[in-house]
Design goal:
With 69 residues, the protein is an all-alpha fold. It contains two helices and no strands.
């Protein structure tokens, strides 16, 4: 590869790494929390929460009914 090609590859690599690094800690915008497309949200005003946006520990904790008194 020529010198200019190496420079382009290195710049692309740096920009990819920086893009990942800075986007890691961002909060998800509200419009991405719905299953519907952005068009459906704006035109039809509906939003079904996505399963990926639910809290991680939203499951019910099991109750221990087998305690002997």
């Amino acid at each position: 590869m020529s010198r200019s090609m190496w420079i382009i590859v290195i710049l692309i690599l740096i920009s990819t790494i920086l893009s990942f690094w800075y986007s890691k800690n961002r909060e998800t915008p509200d419009w991405m929390k719905c299953k519907e497309s952005l068009f459906d949200q704006v035109v039809f005003k509906k939003c079904t929460p996505s399963q990926f946006m639910s809290p991680k520990d939203s499951f019910e904790k099991p109750t221990d009914n087998s305690v002997n008194e």
